[in-house]
Amino acid sequence: MTPKTFHRQVFWLTAAGILVLLISIFFAVSPVNAKPPFQETEKYCLTCHGDSTLSMTLPSGETLSLYVAQDDLDHSLHSIVGIECEACHNNISEYPHPKTEFETKRDLSLAYYQTCEKCHSVNYEKTQDSMHAQAAAAGNANAPVCTDCHGSHDVSPSNEPRSRISVTCAKCHTEIVEPYRQSVHGAALMKDENPDVPVCTTCHGVHNIQDPRTNQFRVDQPEMCAGCHADQNLMDKYGLSADVYNIYKRSWHGVDVSVYKAKWPTIWHDSAVCSDCHGIHDIRATGDPASMVNKENLLATCQKCHPSAGPNWTDAWTGHNEISLERTPFLFYVEKFYGSFTPFILWGCVIYVILQIIRSTVDRVRSNRS
Ligand code: HEC
Ligand code: HEC
Ligand code: HEC
Ligand code: HEC
Ligand code: HEC
Ligand code: HEC
Ligand code: HEC
Ligand code: HEC
Ligand code: HEC
After folding, report:
1. What distance in Å separates the CA atoms of residue 325 and residue 334, rounded to the nearest whole number?
2. Spatial contact of 361 and 355, defined as CB atoms under 8 Å apart
3. Does residue 306 have its Cβ closer than 6 Å to ligand 9?
4. Is the previous residue joined to 179 through a cis bond, with omega within 30 degrees of 0?
5. Is the previous residue joined to 161 through a cis bond, with omega within 30 degrees of 0?
6. Which of 171, 304, 332, 352 has its CA 20 to 30 A from that of 119?
């Protein structure tokens, strides 16, 4: 081989290399290649499951529709990131399918939802020690699993719009969601998707929902409400006092509850927490005639725990308010009086004692001299 032919070969080899490189770069970024391969499986499965009349009869006698709507898939967050049928139905890749052992529709859901764990192990772990899992373990087949709250083929963001969360819980807890929607918090959510008010999951958590009727949950409650009601900026926005928590903490009830929280968090104690006076899922604005703390209803609210309380009881009570000249003039003057009278007496005592000491010292010095 002459040096000339050698150089020519090197030239052509390099040129061919560059060409191959360019072609592969072109296909890597070109839209032709961006078409996700998953649509192939989807297309295959949907040749049968895209038929809205396809169904099967389960041993329980229930009819199971086998229709998977293209429209649901199009909107599912999973399709967007390229997750295909086989990711969840990993036992099925072609027809005929392996024989099923599902007695009921619920059996099928309970079997297939397990595949969520593969990619969402953190949430899966959390659900395992929730109230819902406990109910399932106790044999309640209606206790929710992932797909009851999220769906399976049409998974969409669970908190958009925000009111969707209460709709999800309402599937099974209507008796709680209805009063919640009428409450000051729920009404603000339903009306304008207000992001400042609490939804079900703000107070209960999402996947690790615990029993809200324990004493621990009860003694933690004032801090739960304070998360928003002691936030000055947030409360200013609604013209509400941000002092309710601080003043509550100083009240008899508040002190009582914090002592229990610190020392005996698991022992039930009746001293009032926020919800005993305001309600839980049915909290109303103070001015609302249905509010438990409205003037008309307040005495009855106190009487739940103080059966012998009379009207004077609520009149004398300062509630969440600092003692003030406008609202409670009598208490204001009593407080002012003691505010100056007590130091006056104390200083008087101190001066008296000092004078006594001086006097006795002077006396002793004099008697020593004489
Ligand atoms: C040729 C038509 C056909 C194709 C293609 C097909 N299926 Fe099916 N599928 C059926 C029929 C019919 C049933 C009812 C039960 C049976 O006959 O096995 C069924 C049942 C099912 C069930 C419910 C019962 C079970 O076995 O869990 C699932 C889930 C399922 N198919 C998923 C898929 C997936 C995923 C694909 C694509 C990989 C697919 N199918 C492709 C016809 C089809
Ligand atoms: C994110 C996981 C996931 C993906 C992806 C998925 N499925 Fe399912 N599928 C499930 C679950 C879970 C069930 C059990 C029913 C339930 O709980 O809603 C189910 C049930 C089914 C059933 C039984 C009928 C029914 O609706 O209950 C068929 C048929 C089925 N899937 C077919 C498909 C096909 C075809 C695809 C792809 C186009 C697909 N699935 C993609 C999770 C998935
Ligand atoms: C193969 C892995 C995989 C499987 C199996 C899977 N997911 Fe997902 N899931 C994802 C990915 C990836 C995302 C998108 C994450 C993102 O956009 O942040 C997602 C998103 C979600 C979201 C939306 C989260 C949000 O931002 O609101 C929910 C809810 C969800 N999955 C529930 C499920 C359920 C229920 C199942 C079982 C039926 C399931 N997933 C099975 C991978 C998976
Ligand atoms: C009782 C109903 C319920 C059950 C059961 C449930 N979720 Fe959720 N999930 C929700 C709600 C509601 C949200 C939105 C919470 C929020 O934004 O406050 C959510 C949020 C999510 C998110 C997005 C936020 C995040 O944490 O990443 C994913 C992913 C998710 N869930 C997956 C799952 C999986 C997987 C399971 C089953 C192991 C499951 N969920 C069980 C109601 C539920
Ligand atoms: C598919 C039905 C279903 C859905 C959806 C559901 N739950 Fe439940 N929930 C149950 C069942 C069943 C129990 C157990 C009740 C029992 O044992 O008496 C339960 C128990 C609870 C408990 C414990 C108190 C009690 O009564 O045992 C709380 C708190 C709770 N759910 C909150 C929620 C919240 C918040 C949501 C929405 C994010 C939600 N649930 C969605 C069915 C559901
Ligand atoms: C502001 C906080 C808060 C919000 C918001 C909230 N809850 Fe509760 N929830 C509580 C408290 C506190 C309890 C404990 C009640 C008790 O002591 O009996 C409770 C109790 C429960 C119980 C137990 C059963 C019962 O009758 O007491 C369920 C179920 C429940 N809530 C579901 C929900 C659902 C569903 C939503 C959304 C519509 C919701 N909660 C919104 C604080 C809240
Ligand atoms: C996530 C923040 C948040 C939490 C947690 C919260 N709230 Fe609220 N609350 C608000 C906001 C915001 C408003 C004002 C809503 C409006 O006026 O539209 C409000 C309004 C109220 C009102 C009506 C005040 C009036 O007279 O107008 C009462 C009473 C109340 N909340 C009590 C509670 C109690 C009790 C708890 C705890 C069990 C609690 N809230 C937990 C944000 C919260
Ligand atoms: C012993 C009963 C009682 C307890 C406990 C109680 N409240 Fe109140 N709350 C009232 C009464 C009565 C009013 C209306 C009159 C007033 O403002 O004092 C009120 C008013 C309010 C208001 C409206 C304030 C405004 O600016 O109009 C909010 C918000 C509130 N409470 C939140 C709470 C929170 C949060 C807790 C727990 C930390 C709590 N309350 C504990 C009785 C109570
Ligand atoms: C959930 C029950 C409950 C509710 C509702 C309740 N209290 Fe109390 N309250 C208690 C308990 C328990 C004590 C502590 C008694 C003790 O330690 O001996 C207490 C103590 C008090 C005390 C100081 C001690 C005393 O007995 O004089 C006052 C004042 C008081 N409450 C006023 C009220 C007023 C006013 C209301 C209504 C706005 C109210 N309470 C609602 C349970 C409650």
Report:
1. 11
2. no
3. yes
4. no
5. yes
6. 171
Q: Rounded distance, CA 329 to CA 270, Å?
A: 31
Testing ligand 2's pocket by substitution, the residue of 112, 116, 142, 148 carrying the most ligand atoms inside 8 A of its CB is: 112
Q: How far is the CA of 307 from the centre of ligand 9 (A)?
A: 10
pLDDT in tens, 305-356: 999 999 888 887 878 987 777 767 776 777 777 778 888 889 999 999 999 9
The predicted-structure confidence for 199-237, as pLDDT tens digits, reads as follows 999 999 999 999 999 999 999 999 999 999 999 999 999
Phi-psi region of 194 (alpha: psi -120 to 50; beta: other; left: phi over 0): beta
Token duo for residue 18: 């560059």
CA distance 284 to 86: 49
Q: What is the per-residue burial (b if ≥16 Cβ within 10 Å, else e) of 166-188?
A: bebbbeeeeebbeebbebbbbbb
Distance, in Å, from the CA atom of 98 to the CA atom of 114, rounded to the nearest integer, reads 18
What is the CA angle 290-221-213, rounded to 5? 85
Angle ∠(154,158,161) on CA atoms, nearest 5? 110
Atom 36 of ligand 1, nearest CA residue = 45
Which two three-digit tokens encode residue 157? Answer: 């963001």
